[in-house]
Amino acid sequence: MTDLLATSAETWQQRTDAAPEVPTALLPPVDTSVRRRISALRARHRLREARAEAAFRASRNPDQGWPVADYAAVWTFLRDLVRTRRRIFTLLIVLNALAAGAAMLVPRLLGALIDRSVPDAVGVTAAGSATGILWALIGVVVAQALLTYGGQRTSAVFGQDLLSSAREFIVDTILALPLGRVEGASTGDLVTRVTRDVGTMSRSVQYGVPMAIISLLTVSLSVVAMVVNSPFLAAPSLLVIGSSFFQVRRYLRRAQKCYIAEGATYSRINANLTETVEGARTVEALRLGDRRIEQAEVDVAVSAQAERYGMTLRNLLFAVIDVAFNTPRVITVLAGAYGYARGWLTLGQITAAVLYVEALSGPLDRLVGEVDRLQVGAASTSRLLGIAQVPQDREPGEARPDGSTLVGEDLRFAYREGHDVLHGIDLRLQPGERLAVVGPSGSGKSTLGRLLAGVNAPRTGRATVGGVDLVSLPLEVLRTEVALVTQEHHV
């Protein structure tokens, strides 16, 4: 007991010998040269990357709190959601593929129209009238509009259906959590996961998945149309755009860890905020207000560093993507002029190629954006699925209560090994009786309530209802026998 009293202050007092949570190396230098600023920026980026790596590793095997699922579980979860909706998913693919295909016909028809309007383009004589092509162009545009409407409507229904099932799964998972883990783990982390992470996952499932599918289809068909129109004009553009995917791949490898680290910082902010609100009287009594405010500022600063790492990753990605999007326009015009001068190409092919490059940049930009959204959603989903990986803390038995008498015999319980907070309590409550448990803070009132509600098993002794151990009852039976009105405001 003496050792416990000697170290008890360490559980709430701030350590003065601890290293700063935001190292000075993460602060930008002042009054220095541009070269040193750039060097310091690179050093800060590497340090933030190392911190994200450490946070990611810690999330896989947490010493306390809730675990985080790996990405294999995320893709399995998404695959199972889609697998049960094959019909609407197939309809989504077909409608959007047809809409994208119709869109790809427009540049080709415009090119053909130009070739027919310029009969001397490479010595080729136009045959027939351009009127038929014009009517075909109008028909394709109308068909594209109708198919796009159908595809967008189907994607909206598909996204809402996915969202509904995902939310139901999360709610079922949370309600099935072991009671002991819910009571013992960080409430702030759980609050973050069921609020911010659920919202992020919802946006990704509802909008990200359908839009990524549509953008991928459009990009794929645009590439095919460019090659069919003219391999000579398509090759340089595809090489430039393809080279940008190395940066996309590099970004994706790091974004996963970045967003997991960001989620952990939000959990920490909510955890400390929740603790401060719940312990407001204690904070005021011990005059810890300034200390709690200081801790909140530190938490926000740590979160800001994690956000800056993600912002730097996105800036590096978008810089390469912007170059890859704009360069093909110039290359296509120059290559087209070269090919036209040598009689390899017609004006119609050049026009179609330029239009294809313009049409490709939009869907490709959306695809990269949706991939980023899916990365954020996958990180949040992995945190939510981590809740489902929490093992159960009890093995339900077959016995059922015979009566409603609540009995506690020699109840002992310890949060820290060797330090009991309950010391051999005996009680017997008959239906209709009321028992008021009175005592100072920390005397074990809530702990006794948790044992009598079957939330935790006693270290020694038994807590039974109707002669059956509370922790051996299935949750659906336990909740009909004993009800615990929680003091947790977030529940």
Describe this entry's structure for a reader.
This protein has 491 residues and is α+β, with helices and mostly antiparallel strands. The protein has 2 domains: 58-388, ABC transporter transmembrane region fold (Up-down Bundle), CATH 1.20.1560; 406-481, P-loop containing nucleotide triphosphate hydrolases (Rossmann fold). The protein has helices spanning 2-7, 34-60, 71-83, 86-117, 131-175, 179-184, 187-229, 231-243, 245-278, 280-285, 289-341, 347-388, 445-452, 475-481; strands spanning 406-416, 419-429, 460-465, 468-469. A 4-stranded antiparallel sheet has the order 2-1-3-4. Strand 3 (460-465) and strand 4 form a beta hairpin. Helix 5 packs antiparallel against helix 7 (187-229). It starts with a helix and ends in a 10-residue tail after the last helix. The relative contact order is 0.11. The model is unreliable at 121-127 (pLDDT under 50).
